[in-house]
């Protein structure tokens, strides 16, 4: 697999999912860890997100669930809640996904996730 193809494929997928928010994350790393920024595009987006096994909606629901369960990734969770909305996940589906995590990750993680969702939804309403 050609490295440049991985990068270009990943960048296109990142734009499709996250739009400008994803590009801002990558740009924020360029001054401190440009290699990490490249890895962030190539592996998750160029290799994994580009696989045919799941649609983007299913992938983003899984990411929202995982980041909620981690409980320590609020900035990334907010980016992926917005990404989920960008690819067709409804607000109700985001909320239900986060609520489901109370069973497996605990109420504090779900409460933090719901707080993140509330912020993302409010930003969307303000636009």
From TrEMBL:
It comes from the Bacteria. GO terms for molecular function: peroxiredoxin activity. Coiled coil: none annotated. Pfam families: CMD (PF02627). Residues 34-119 form the Carboxymuconolactone decarboxylase-like domain. SUPFAM superfamilies: AhpD-like (SSF69118). InterPro entries: 4CMD/NDH-1_regulator (IPR052512), AhpD-like (IPR029032), CMD-like (IPR003779). Gene3D superfamilies: AhpD-like (1.20.1290.10). This is 4-carboxymuconolactone decarboxylase. It comes from Oryzisolibacter propanilivorax.
